[in-house]
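Hi L., both proteins are below.
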Amino acid sequence: MSNTNKINRDLDYDVVVIGAGIAGLGAGYFLSEQAKVVVLEQEEQPAYHSTGRSAALYIEGYENPVVAGLTAQSGAFFRTQHEGARPLLHDRGGLAIAIEGQERALSKYLSIWQPFCPNLKPVTAAECRLICPILDDKKLIGGAYDPDWKSIDTHELVQIYLRGLRKNQSTLQTGQKVAALEPRGEGWEVRTNKETFNSRWVVNAAGAWANEVAQLAGLTPIDLTPMRRTAAMIEAPVEASEWPVVHSMSGDLYFKPEGASLMVSPQDETPSSPVDAFPEDLDIAIAVDNFSKISDYPVNHVQHSWAGLRTFTGDRLPVLGPDPNSNSFFWLAGQGGFGVQTSPALGKVTADSILNNKPIDQIIHRQRFS
């Protein structure tokens, strides 16, 4: 460990991580292998907001090449059989479907993602219906199928991270809303609604609240926009448990098996302030309508629905690295809809950068400040 990043044992903690979503828990897990860490969460339980409302898929051909690379780097962690844990990945498959007029979009999708996903292949409309029997093949022109999409057991992933924290004599503290951050020498004094923590480093993993945390530290907010995503559960036939995730080339629908139901989403991205998100009736109606347009399966009623916030930068890449005005304040934000599947890679990069001075890929760590 370098002298620059030498741990000060006189402090309460080496690192305070703000936010116990999947990003903060992943960072805390890897940091705790070498440092004493406390993860602070304003809610009374971890993974309450975006993490607990995520579709939780492992997709190596997702969003953009940078995210795809981070996902692939996380693969070994997901495939490891962790002590005392259930397997994290389960076979699911992913089917992209296209309607008339989307031939070009389908061709582009295949050309972009086949280099990352060797088993991704084009399929006919009839094959789409064989893969997912409720699809109306008369309304489709074809699609693309990737058998390598996996479901992630998010609950088990959270428990692995929490067990790792405890094993390494670090901790999660809930109900701790950060009220102030003050520089103290080379470190920080972090005051919450309950108590005060002193640490060498602060990791800002506050999700939709990341800019608010930065402002408490006297630092400049960056290009982050929380966006609401809606999902609803509808009744499904028994055989649906074997179906893949189905998503539209137009980006206005996906659905996936979830227990004895189907989770349906209009893939909405509505800018929002940092709040405990709730679904809008209109978005639920749009999801059901879009589902009905490509399916011959009747939707009799919506069982329940929810919404969550996914926070994006303008270029849809994560923000990772020290603030240019404070090397001891580390950003871990902007994971959009890929936070769960990239959390092992981003957590390890965070720990290696803070504790071992390992450089961060410049594509991820850029000057995002005006």
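That was the first. Here is the second:
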Amino acid sequence: MRRSPPCYKPAVTSSDDDEPTDLELLRRWADGDKQAGTLLYRRHFKALYGYCRRRFANQQLVDDVVQESFMRVLEKASGFRAQSSFRTYLIGTAYNVYREQLRKMRERPIDGSRESLAEISGRRYSSILAHKDELRRVFDALRTIPINDQELLELFHFQDFRVKDLAELLELKENTVKSRLRLARAKLARKYLELSGAPPDREVDDAQIEAWLEAARPDALRAEANEDDDDKDDD
């Protein structure tokens, strides 16, 4: 029988140096320790919620993906070997649930190599309020490049997925992931320049694109930690 994830309550900080690891909490939760599940949920709720909230305006969909992600992690607890962080494992699970939800929302299959989140959702602009116009354009550009490229860049640059983690999640070779990251950055650069009104023949090197994404990371994580983003009332 499926066990429901514990209800979210505001995180409680602890000064205990012997606080259990995520792996220990997951194993205890899988063995029926509800308190362990509650603590694990508190630790990672905001990160998971923020990841989902940036992808769905509908609150019910956000809640469904959050709950389903925790449930799948619990059901496959024995498969978590702590070779990556628990947060990476959880967000990777949410990535799969999110893609499934996208497919359910459409009458036809989604082509993640061509279609963007802006096209699918009907919302072109990002909800993240960056503190500089150029960073806002980075988020808008991410939303309007193909979904596969957006996810790859966000998981790598904002969610701390390593190439190895991405290869495992996407079932690709590591060299293929590296190649796709380069191509995704190039698409992001073209879209960024388009949104900024730059001359069409202007070129941007890979280092500059990585600098944009590194500069955008604090705003992405700040939005991730804020449960009340600008899309709250969108449908």
